[in-house]
Amino acid sequence: MSASIDQAFIKQFQAEVHEAFQRQGSKLRGTVRSKTGVRGASTIFPRVGKGTAAAKARNGSVPVMNLDHSTVECFLQDYYAGDWIDKLDELKTNVDERAVVAHAGAYALGRKTDELIIAALDTATSEAIGTDAGTTDGDGLTKAKVLLAFQMLGAADVPDDGNRFAVVGWKQWSDLLQIQEFANAMYVGDDALPWKGTQAKQWLGALWLPHSGLTKNGTTRYCYFFHRNAVGHAVASEVVTDITWHGDRAAHFVNNMMSQGAALIDGTGVVRMRCRE
User: Fold this and answer.
1) What share of the chain is helix, strand, coil (3-state, %, to 5)?
2) What is the DSSP letter of 87?
3) Looking at residue 177, what DSSP letter applies?
4) Which residue of 68, 123, 253, 277 is 20 to 30 Å from 170, comparing CA positions?
5) Are strands 42-48 and 69-75 parallel, antiparallel or unpaired?
6) Is the pLDDT score of 196 beyond 90?
């Protein structure tokens, strides 16, 4: 047997972890503003306020918009997901079983990425809560509540530019499927199913996603309608896999790790929909 067989195993394993994370690790990373290659314990996301246009007199000075410039600091944290692989275990030669371990580590870090983004969304304060039927805390995700959130984003001048997203729990996804305008192919056709399945749907100018990790407070699930630029996600280190041999255990230790963080940049671009579950 070649003396370099361990290196081949390590390289293959690292490739499988990276592939699994990119394919199914995180559902929300692509819905927010993301910055990679960060150096340091934190990074800054710039925030620019609204400008106001004004007329000027002939030969007069051009009016200044006096934009409000501010920054949001996003702190990064390190996360790890490790496991042991015994030297004599069939994982050394059985590709399917080895992939199970690789995927488990990638999925664990992917869930952590989504947890960071959800925690940032949870700091938003704008809520689609009213007194009309279908818009109260005691209601599930109704058409009236969705339209209220849609109205609030529009009133706040949040761009309807194809970068709006809505993330809901699976119970709320079932509620949506009872709304004809969401479920009926006459309203939402095949071209509005970007992933060709039940995982995502275009509606009201936004991409709707179901997610099992949204915060639940008692009997209330927090769902969100938001714009990509409202939340920032920073990456100092993408998912990296380190495999070391431990002779005292006759096993390899597989350590998957990453350094990431998330922060709310602009609360006006996020509307929480509280739904009874």
Assistant:
1) 30, 30, 35
2) T
3) T
4) 123
5) antiparallel
6) no
Rounded to the nearest 10 degrees, what angle do helices 95-121 and 5-24 cross at? 40
The answer to whether the beta carbons of residues 55 and 48 sit under 8 Å apart is no
CATH architecture of the domain formed by 1-47+74-277: Alpha-Beta Complex (3.90)
Residue 246: both structure tokens together: 């431990």
Contact between 46 and 224 (Cβ < 8 Å)? no
Does residue 164 surpass a pLDDT of 70? yes
Confidence bin at 126 (pLDDT 50/70/90): very high
Nearest to 155 by CA among 99, 225, 203, 84: 225
Share of the chain above pLDDT 90, in %: 47
Are 138 and 185 in contact by the 8 Å Cβ rule? The answer is no
Pair of tokens at residue 272: 């929480």
User: Which amino acid appears at position 86 of this protein?
Assistant: D
Q: What is the pLDDT of residue 8?
A: 61
Other Cβ atoms within 10 Å of 36 Cβ, number: 11
φ and ψ of 119, to 5 deg = -60, -35
Give the gyration radius of the chain's Cα atoms. 23
**Distance from the Cα of residue 122 to its chain's centroid:** 12
**Residues β-bridged to residue 224:** 167, 272
Contacts of 151 (CB under 8 A, 6+ apart): none
Would the pLDDT of 107 be above 50?
A: yes
Rounded Cα distance between 251 and 245, Å, is 6
Q: Domain locations in the chain?
A: 1-47+74-277
